[in-house]
Amino acid sequence: MRELSFHGVTVRFGAGRSALAAVDGVDLTVPAGSVVGLVGESGSGKSTLAKAAVGLVPTTDGEIRLDGAPLRARRDRRRLQMVFQDPYASLDPRMTIGASIAEAVPGRPGRTGRAAEVARLLELVDLDPSRAGSLPSGLSGGQRQRVALARALAAEPDVVLADEITSALDVSVQGSVLNLVRDLRRQLGLTMLFISHNLAVVRYVSDVIAVMYLGRIVEAGPAAEVLTSPRHPYTRTLLDAAPRFGVALDDPVPADSELLDDEPPSPHDPPPGCRFHRRCPIGPLTVPERTVCVEKDPQPAAADRPHRAACHFASDAAPASLEVPAR
Amino acid sequence: MGRAQWRAALRNPVGAVAAGLLVLLAILAIVAPILWGDAAEATDPAALSQGSTSDHPLGTDALGRDIMFRVLVATRYSLGLALLATAICVVAGVILGVLPAVLGRRSGRLVVAAVNLAVAFPALLLALFFAVIFGVGARGAVLAIGLAGAPSFARLVQTNVAAVSGRDFVAAARVAGVGRFRLIVRHLLPNVGEPLVVNATVLAGGALLAFAGLSFLGLGVQPPAYDWGRLLGEGLDRIYINPSAALAPGVAVVIAGLAFTLLGEAIAQVVGIRTTRRILPRRSATPPADPADGASTATAPAPTEPAPDAVLAVEGLRVGFPGAGPDGWTYPVDGVDLTVRRGETVGIVGESGSGKSLTALSLARLAPERAVVTADRLDVVGLSLAGGDGDALGDEPPRDDPAVRKHLGTRLAMVFQDPMTSFNPSMRVGWQLAEVARVHEGQGRRAALARAIDRLRTVRVPAPQRRAHQYPHEYSGGMRQRAMVAMGLMSEPELIIADEPTTALDVTVQRQVLRLLREVQRETGAAVVLISHDIAVVAQLCQRIVVMYAGRVVEELPADRLDRAAHPYTRALLGSVPDLTTDRELPLATVPGRPPDPASRPAGCAFAPRCSFADDVCRADPRLATVAPDQRAACWHPRLDDQKQHGQEPHGQEPHGRQPHEEGVSRA
């Protein structure tokens, strides 16, 4: 397992007026042997970042490196494996699960070698090896996702990118897949980029949490710290919005302020300055003197702030005392 | 697409005729030249250009050769040429069709453009063009017809391949390092095969006709060889003297063409491209509401009087579909009792397949056409939709009774999961809202629109005046959901049913929509039924929670008693979802196995095969029984201990650690 790092990675789609940067200058490191959780709302560019890493979408700018060496050749891409969101779409319906897994096994191990490898991988993801001959249609969602994991592991990857792998699953099954991810990580020392929109899920499996908003990483840091003392107001908003038992819907959180724009901004036309300022509970809409948020992009100096937060006021966004601005 | 389906296809008239004709043609093609090859060549100078005689039933040609034999013998050559042309067409089409998927972006586009250009030419024109280029004769004609058909076939392949190559499993294969050739052969072609096979058979029929046409024009087969087209051409000269000389090859062409087309039709039926109409069980097969097999004994034995302030009173609701169940019916909803009082917020939680959405749809009389909805009682916003005898809904009052429609339309509001599909994309949002007031209350355009704008303001859509004139696609997901709520508020609803209203939304937006529902409920006093797979979401908004499993209600409890859930399934649901306080050091609780298929539910408690407390008692149906004040559970072994913390507290599901082969493998 090796370290995966993104350096100023930009992915642009379209041209002219319809152009949009789905990923915009992302710097992110997934250290060897650790799980980095990437959270963000839909459209924030998290899946695009993963697809860029495995070569499914071309990057416009920047570099993706494995242990410091740029990833370029098609051959290299195999070092990264991806598990997709929908296990009902990610397995070929016409191929037995054994064949799907075997296809990813590198080299030419021969028929018996391949069968043994498939059996080993199925065992690894807690599936009965005798099911290698079944078609995906005979498997439940959770079992399919296990097969997808086994296929990713078959390629002996350095890094696994898991893109929303539990969001298409039923709740009672989601837990078992998360347990599996944890176990595999312990057994194999997996390096993993774990993408999800669900903060609680990301929290459960990750060492490091990175938060993405409109194509950019707005905060990244050790999981416990990011969750207990978020430095970016967006992270705070996500935390506040996550449903929690025993916390009533009526307890107002800063982001509930009516002053804030309800509408997520369009990636075609990102707001100037800080991209979050129109929805920011501590930004210019609630604290009028903070005009810097509209004028200056907080991204360039992010590396110097705690949690690399892309917020001009990251240092004083104290954890518990995130003030509820007067209306 | 098993063998059984092919056998079934043979039994249906289209398949049987196609198969019969094909067998006949195949036998002729093989046998005729062997048996009658010489006879067809034999010239009889004594009988030149004769009509029908006893020696020559269809007459003879100008050289005195027997026309009947010639038509029969020509089968092999005609069919052979047509199939060869089809093969060329298919091969060229497939190659051109898959190239864009595996070539680079730019060269792929070039291929697509070239094919599009070629498709624009009429095929017959292309065929004539190629026939001239390749020279007159059978070989030229085969190439001409084959290549002329290739562009449209290539287009078909391209379209199908493009649809498949956008899917995740192709991306996964690419990531796994699968080569281009293997990608085509193993992943792309097998998954687009069916429409291609169907099309190729139809194409063969077309090629046969085209051949006959070219030969008839003298551009195809040249003498001394002959096919049906040439025979037709020769016969036509003497059609007034001996009509059968022209009719016989004509009939042969028609029969063979028909055989191919019918074959294509039959294959299409088997592979499901064109679905045959399923024969539904007759209405008389409508299941009794209270079958003797005790399937609905979980419902209350006799309808009791509902609470006087109930806006929704449901007893023994069953929704059946014709299917694979023991009596020819399956029941995704199988005996649901539910009462919702005025102003109450009730959450229905369950996994996919638990029947929660179908329950909601049945309440609004929106269940699919094929479904048969029965209930001992079904009172929705003051209207009884089913009598005590378990009348099937849809008998009386009829489904489209205007009074019922108006009643439900004004007093009941529905909010669906995907607000993009629940709005008409080609109609401005404001007018769609206004339609409610215009249809149900006969308001004028202007007044209705004014109210729509007012309601949009109520749900805090910014700049409602302007946004009312926008189309649904100009709204973000959260805004659309707000507009959906606003539509429900156009009249005064007593009950709002929200079916997974936030599932497609982000957490921040989800919170806003939930808060909006809460606000609306407080201001209008309407009752809210929130349906979700996410128990945490439901717990946030609702006072009372109803947990569904396998078409039944398994537990009903106040939201603040969730930590004292009595049913093992409710506890499992709570334990398997991580939240922001879950202990990261412990594995999450999991439930082995998976929910039962509605067609084959186990007898007794449906959760028993997955439950670690299950014993012999659980083979009998558990009824909803009171386990605590306001809390009822359908379980023989309700958990009454305090489940201190949500998350990984042991609730006896399984010992901590990995469970080998969970999900089905170790299933009882």
From TrEMBL, chain A:
Record Pfam families: ABC_tran, oligo_HPY
Segments for region (Disordered): 253-275
SUPFAM superfamilies reported for this sequence: P-loop containing nucleoside triphosphate hydrolases
BP-aspect Gene Ontology terms: peptide transport; transmembrane transport
Start and end residues of each ABC transporter domain: 4-239
The protein's name: ABC transporter ATP-binding protein
Keyword Ligase: no
Sorted UniProt keywords: ATP-binding, Nucleotide-binding, Transport
Alphabetized InterPro entries for the sequence: AAA+_ATPase, ABC_transp_ATP-bind, ABC_transporter-like_ATP-bd, ABC_transporter-like_CS, Oligopep_ABC_C, P-loop_NTPase
Protein family: Belongs to the ABC transporter superfamily.
One MF annotation (Gene Ontology) recorded for this entry: ATP binding
Automatic annotation (TrEMBL), chain B:
Segments traversing the membrane: 12-36, 77-103, 110-134, 196-219, 239-268
Ranges where the ABC transporter domain occurs: 312-575
An example Gene Ontology biological process: transmembrane transport
Gene3D superfamilies per UniProt: MetI-like, P-loop containing nucleotide triphosphate hydrolases
Low complexity bias (residue ranges): 285-306
Keywords, sorted A to Z: ATP-binding, Cell membrane, Membrane, Nucleotide-binding, Transmembrane, Transmembrane helix, Transport
Keyword Nucleotide-binding annotated: yes
Subcellular location, record wording: Cell membrane; Membrane
InterPro entries hit by this protein: AAA+_ATPase, ABC_Ni/Peptide_Import, ABC_transporter-like_ATP-bd, ABC_transporter-like_CS, MetI-like, MetI-like_sf, Oligopep_ABC_C, P-loop_NTPase
The keyword Transport is assigned to this record: yes
Domain of life, source organism: Bacteria
ABC transmembrane type-1 domain location: 75-264
GO cellular component: plasma membrane
A GO molecular function held by the record: ATP hydrolysis activity
Composition skew (Basic and acidic residues), residue ranges: 638-668
Membrane-protein topology: Multi-pass membrane protein; Peripheral membrane protein
Residue span of region Disordered: 281-306, 632-668
Family statement drawn from the similarity comment of this UniProt entry: Belongs to the ABC transporter superfamily. Belongs to the binding-protein-dependent transport system permease family.
Xref: NCBIfam families: oligo_HPY
Protein name: Dipeptide/oligopeptide/nickel ABC transporter permease/ATP-binding protein
Species this protein is from: Jiangella asiatica
